[in-house]
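[RESIDUES AND BACKBONE]
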Amino acid sequence: MSAVRWGRGAAGFGRALWPAGTPGLLAEEGALGGVWGRKRSSTASPCEQDRRKDWGHAELLEVLKARVRQLQAEGMAEVTVKRVAKRVAVARAPEAGGAQPPRQAPAGAKGAGAKGAAATLSSRWAQKLDSDQQLMEKRKQRLEGKLQKRVEKGAWQKQLRLEPRLLSRKLASQLQHWEQGAPRSPWEEQLAQLLQEAPHRLSSEAAAAPADRGPESRLEGQQQRLLSFFECCLLTGHLPLAHHVLVTHHSKSQQQRLLTLSMYNMVMLGWARQGSFKELTYVFFMLKDAGLAPDLQSYAAALQCMGRLDQDAGTIRRCLKQMAQDGLQLQGLFTAVPLSAEERAELLRAVRKAKPTFTPPRPPVPPPQVNTSPLLREIYAKQDPAVSYPRLHLSLKELQGLFQQQLRVEMATTITVESVEKVPLLTKEVLHARKTLAGLRTRWRTALYRELQETKESEAHAAREGRLSLFPYLCLLSEKEVVRMLLQTLQALPAQGESLLFLAHELGLRVFKRKQLRNEVQELEQRYSKYLHLLASDTQVAEPCLPRQHWEALGVPEAPHEQPWPMSVVVQLGKQLAEVLVRAAQMPSSLAAPRSPGTLIPVLYHVYSFRSFRQIGILKPHPAFTQLLETAAERTLTFESTDVPMLCPPLPWTSPHSGAFLLSPTKMMRSVEGSQQHQLLLERCPPAELHGALDALTQLGNCAWRVNGRVLDLVLQLFADKGCPRLGVPAPPSEAPRPPEGRRAPNRCLLPEVSPAEKAEMRRELARRLKVAREMQSLRADALYRLSLARHLRHRVFWLPHNMDFRGRTYPCSPHFNHLGSDLARALLEFAQGRPLGPHGLNWLKIHLVNLTGLKKRESLQARRDYADELMEDILDSADRPMTGRKWWMEADEPWQALACCMEVARAVRAPDPAAYVSHFPVHQDGSCNGLQHYAALGRDSVGAASVNLLPSDLPQDVYSEVAAQVEVFRRQDAEQGVQVAQVLEGFISRKVVKQTVMTVVYGVTRYGGRLQIEKRLREIHDFPQDFVWEASHYLVRQVFNSLQEMFSGTRSIQRWLTESARLISHTGSAVEWVTPLGIPIIQPYHRDSKVMIKGGLQSLTFSSSVDTSQKPNTLKQKNGFPPNFIHSLDSSHMMLTALHCYRKGLTFVSVHDCFWTHAADVAVMNQVCREQFVRLHSQPILHNLSRFLIERFCSDPRTSKSIWVSRLMDTLLSVPKTGTFNLEQVKHSTYFFS
C-alpha cells in the first residue's frame, strides 16, 4: 500500500482505534525482520527509533554502493555503473540525516576483451540491485506511512469532538463559563449543580413525542441501531468515538429525539470506568439539555467516577442529597444496578467518603417464588419422598472431563469434522490441486487482511463525521477470526452460488454470536463442578431437586442480557464482509484457461438470477475454483460450536436468556433476529411463571444420546455408493439430471427455425432439471452434515440443548443432527443410558416395530404383537442381513427406524433373559391427530372425541379413514346426480388422498392450500386421468371441509371464534397476545412488511421485515395464524407437563412435538402420565381464561372503549363457544389416545 494511501483521510484514526489483531505485513519481510521484531526493546521514543531505523537503511545503501564500486574496479561497463548509481541516489531518502551524497563513479579502462564477461556480470548484478532497491523503496514507503499514522493518531483524537453542542443557550453559556473559570474543582462543582437543576421528569417537548422518546421496549429502527453502536464502541474500547457520535446526534434536534436515557448512561458508564470526570460531566450537560432526569444508573456512574478519582466528600454529599431528593434510594445503587465487583468497590468507596458508616445491603435474597399455575402445583410442592429424579450413568470425574472438552470447543468457536465423502486416491493431480489451494489460501489471507484494514479505514472516516458506520462492529472480532470465517464461507459456497442477501445475513449473525462469548471460565468451572453432583452417578446431594433449583441454590449470578442488533445492521455488516471476500479472493487465470496470461481473476462473481419469479443477486464461485476443490477433495467440514451437540450436560435454563451452552448465550425463545417483542414479554413476566417452561426445556436437554453405529455403517455404505433416494439417502450431484441434448438442447433456442412454443418448452424443461439438481444438492449437503457429525460423535455421549419458538413448541438447538429430522435422522440416535426391558419391554418393542411399518393401524395392540411374532423370521433376517437378505424392512413406512428396531428385537430375543436385556432403543407413542384431540377436548365434542381416540375402545379409531369414508358418501350421491368429476373419482378416494389435508386443516390450512395437497396426491396415482386433476382437487377439498364440518362441529365453531377474535384485535392496531396454561406469554409476530434497503456495494439489498412492531398488524396473518398457534401452545403445554411428571418418576423422556419417546420398559408409565396430564390440562377453563385475558388486555383501556372495533371485540369475546357433554375422565382409560 502506498504511503499516500496510508496517509490520507482517516488513516490515523483507523490505526488509533483498531484493536490488537494480526500484526502488519511489515514484520514479515526477511532482511529487516530483526528491526521490526516485537522482541526488540528500546528506551528511545518511537520517533527516535524510527529515525534510527531510517539511518540503518541509509547504511545498507552505502554497502550496496560499495559493492558497485568494487564491480567497477573489476571492469564493469561504465553505463551500467551510472544506472546503478542513479537508482541508489533516487531511492535514498532526503531526510535520512547525515548520509553522504552519492559519489561520481570514476572512469575506468575499458578493454575490448573484457566487455563480454563484464556485460554478463553487469546484467546479473544489475537485476539483483534492482530487486533489492525496489524492496527498499517499498519498505521506505511503509516506514513513512507508519510514521505519518503515528502523527495522525494524536490528530484524530483531537478531531473527535468531546465538548457538547448544547441546544439550550443558557446551558451552553453555563458550560462555557465553567470551562473558562478557575475554581479548584470546576467539574465536580458543575456536576453537583447540574444534578440539582436536573428535571424530575421529561420536558414538555420530550413528553410530546412519546413514540420518539418512549421506553426501550419500543426501540425500533434507528434507535436500536444507535444502542447497538454505542454498545459495540464500549466493547471494542472506542469510547471517544461513542461520545463523538453522541455529541453529533445531540447537537441536531431531529437526531436528538432518537437518543434515550440508556444511551447517555452507557457513555457515562464508559467514562466512569476510565475515571474521566470532565467527559462524564459533558454527558450530564447533554442529559439536562435533552430534558431527561438522571436515574440510578446515572448516579452510579457519577459516584463510581468520584470513587476512582478520590473526590472530596462535599461533592459526593451533594450528589447523594440530590439523589434522595429525586426519590432514588441509596441502597438501589447496590441492588438494582448491574455492576461488576470492581465497579461496586469504587462506588462503595465514594459513598463511604460521605457516609463512613454506610454498609451496602447484601444481595437481596429473593422471596420464595411460587408458580401460581394449578397445573404445576404438584411439581413445585414440598418434596415428596417418593420422588426419584433420574441420574446420569456417568461418574463425576467422567462428566468433569466432558465439561473440559465442551469448554475447549466453545472457546475455539468452531469445530472441524472429517467429512464422510469418499476419500480419493492421493494421485499427483490431487496432491497438486491441494498444493495449489494451499498457496491460494496463503495469498487470500494476506489480501483479506489488507482489504479488512482498508475497509476499517473507510468506515472510520465515516464515523469521524458522526455517522453510524460499521467500524465498531468490524472491530468486535480480531482480523484473524474474520479472515478464518470468510475463508470458511468461501469453502462452503455451493457450485450454483448463494443469494447475496442470505450470505450477508449469515455472516452478520456469525459475528453477532461470536462477540457474545463470555469469558468467566474459572468461576463457571467451579460452579458447574458443584452442579454435576446432582447428575453424576457416584455423588449425592442433600435434598433432591430440579436442576434449575440446584443451580440457583449455588448463587450463580444471572448472565447480562444482550441487546439484539437490528436486522439492517446484521445484513449490512454481512454484506460488507462478503464484499471484502469478493475483492480479496482472486486466482491466476491460468487455472481457468491454461494458455491464458497469468493475470488475476476473481474467484467469486456477482450475477443475477430468477428465483420464484424474483430477480436476486447471487455470489457464484468460478467453475475453475469449483473444479479445483473437487480435484483436491479435502474432506473436512467446519461448524459453529453452537451448531453441534454438546459434549456435556447443558446449563439449566434459569431465565429467558440464560441456559444451554456454557459460554455462548442462547435465547430461550427463538425469533427472527432483531425482533424484541417476544423477549420483552418474557422479561416482564414474573420469573416464577416461567419455571414450568424453564424446567421442561432443561429436562429435555439433559437426555444423553449416542449414535447407533450399525445403522450408521449401512447408511454410509449407501451414501458412498450413489445413495438410495427410495430409502432417504440422497444421490450425489453426479446423478442429477443433465441439461437436455439433441433437439431439446438449450443452445437450440438461439436458432431462428425454432418456434416460440418450442423455445418455451425447452426453457421449462431446463428450469425443471435445474430445480431438481438444486434440490438434490441441498439434500445431499444436509445428509453430508448429518452423517459427518454422526461419525464424529460415534463413540461419544452427547446432549441436545433445547429452546422453543414463540408458541412454546420445543426444538433442539443443534440444527444438523437431532431427533426431529427424517426417518434416517431418528434411526441414527438412541439413548446413551440403557434400561432393562423388564416383563413388558419386549412386547412394546414389537408393537413399536409394527407401528413403524404403517401396517395394522386399525388393529389392537395384541394383534400387533401377534403380527410381529408371525414376522419374526423376516425381522431376524433383516437384522442379520439387511442388505443381502429378504430386505423386509425396506417396505416399511419408516424403513431405517424399522431396521434399527429389528436389530434391537433380535438382540433381545436372543438374550439369555430378555427381561434383563439392557435396551437403549427409544420407543415412540404418537398422538392420534393431536390437533383435533385438543379441539375435541376444548369443545367437549363427543363425536369428534370418538374419532380421535379420546374415548376408550377395543380398536383404534382412524379419523383419516372416517373422513375418506364420509367423502366417498358425498361422492356417491353426486355421481348419482350426474356430476362428472364425482364419477371420474370413483375408486380413487383413499385415506392417503385426504390425510394431509385433514391433518393440517386443524392448523389453519386454507381451501387453496388443501387443494394443492390433494392435487399432489392425485398426480401420484398413475391410473388417475390427469386432465381431471385440477377439477377433482377442487371438488375433493370442498367435500373434505364439509365432512369435517359434520364430524367436528364443535371444532369449527371454536376455530371461527378464534379467527374472528384475532381479526378484530388486529383492527384495533394490536398483535394478538395470550398466555399459555403454563404461564408462557405469547405474541404473534405478524406485522405489515416494512421494506429495508441497504444501498451501495455490489448491489442494493432490499428485504422485508414482518417483525417491526411500529408497523400495523397484518390482519390476514393474525387471524389465520391464531387458531393453529393457539392449539400449538396447548400441545406444547401438554408435552411440558408430561415431561416434568415423567422426570419426577425417574423416566427418560424426549418428544417430537406430539410424539413422545422413552425406554421400552417405561412406555406404560409414560402413557399413564400422558393421559392424566391431558385431562388435567383440559379440566381448566381454557377458553374462558383466554376470553378474560383478551378482554383485560385489549378492551379495558378507557381511551379506546368507544372504538367500534373494540365494541365488536368485546361482544365477540363474551360469546365463548358453548361446549358439549363429553366426559374428559374417559381419556384416562383410552388405550389408543397415544399409541
